[in-house]
Structure formats: structure tokens, C-alpha cells
Specification:
Length: about 130
């Protein structure tokens, strides 16, 4: 049985204005033995999420995101990846430029799912559109 570990790996470019790279931010969820179960990348160029299941343990991988639009309204959602190990699924968005996007990657599990951040919204990975 997997034990949830709230672990995040984030790679960000910091400065006066975020600088785009091919994959700007990365979130990973691990099992109790520090094996990566799944990962999600956010690419600011194209405002896209890339979700990959990395282990046969657990169910389908998915990414959750939340974002404040330019007009001040709140947007949140989830995208489900495939249940196939190594298969990457891409989800495109059109977020406002230079807006902060919070996201985390999860793996479906009986009871509570395992996620890279905590259930109360702390430790979400930050990307910039």
C-alpha cells in the first residue's frame, strides 16, 4: 500500500518578469520509498500541462490547477492523464500573460488520492503563463 508523501520538485525562473523555457515548472508525487509515481510539467510557452504516470503503482495520474484570471475571477480544474506508464498527455490553456498558475499532480488511489501538495492547498507548484 502506498503512503502519501507531500513532496514537490519545482523549477522556476525568478526575476522581475518570468522568462519562458520549454518546461517551466515541475511537480512530482512520490511513494513511501521515494519512487516517482507521476509528474506534471507546466510550460509557459503555450500555457500547457504535460501529465505523465511514472509507475505501475496507483491509478490514473491527473493534474489539478487554480488560477486568478485577469478580470479577478477564479478558475480551477483538473485534467486526467492516461493509466499507461510513460504515456504523456498534454492539455492546452490560454491563461493571461504573466499570470501565476498553481498546480499539483496526483495519482488515483483507494480512499484518498496521493498528490504532490497537501489537500488544504499548501505547497502547490507555481508556474507563470
Amino acid at each position: 500500500m502506498l503512503a502519501p508523501i507531500a513532496a514537490i520538485t519545482a523549477t522556476l525562473t525568478l526575476g522581475a518578469a518570468p522568462v519562458a523555457s520549454s518546461l517551466d515548472a515541475l511537480a512530482r508525487v512520490y511513494d513511501e520509498n521515494s519512487h516517482v509515481l507521476a509528474e506534471a510539467h507546466f510550460a509557459s510557452a503555450g500555457d500547457s500541462f504535460h501529465v505523465t504516470k511514472q509507475s505501475a503503482d496507483g491509478g490514473r495520474a491527473y493534474v489539478q490547477y487554480k488560477y486568478i484570471r485577469v478580470d479577478g475571477t477564479f478558475q480551477s480544474g483538473a485534467h486526467r492523464g492516461r493509466d499507461t506508464v510513460g504515456a504523456t498527455v498534454t492539455f492546452d490553456h490560454d491563461f493571461g500573460e504573466d499570470r501565476k498558475v498553481l498546480f499539483r499532480v496526483c495519482v488515483e488511489a483507494p480512499g484518498d488520492d496521493y498528490c504532490s501538495g497537501t489537500g488544504d492547498g499548501e505547497n502547490w507548484t507555481i508556474g507563470y503563463a
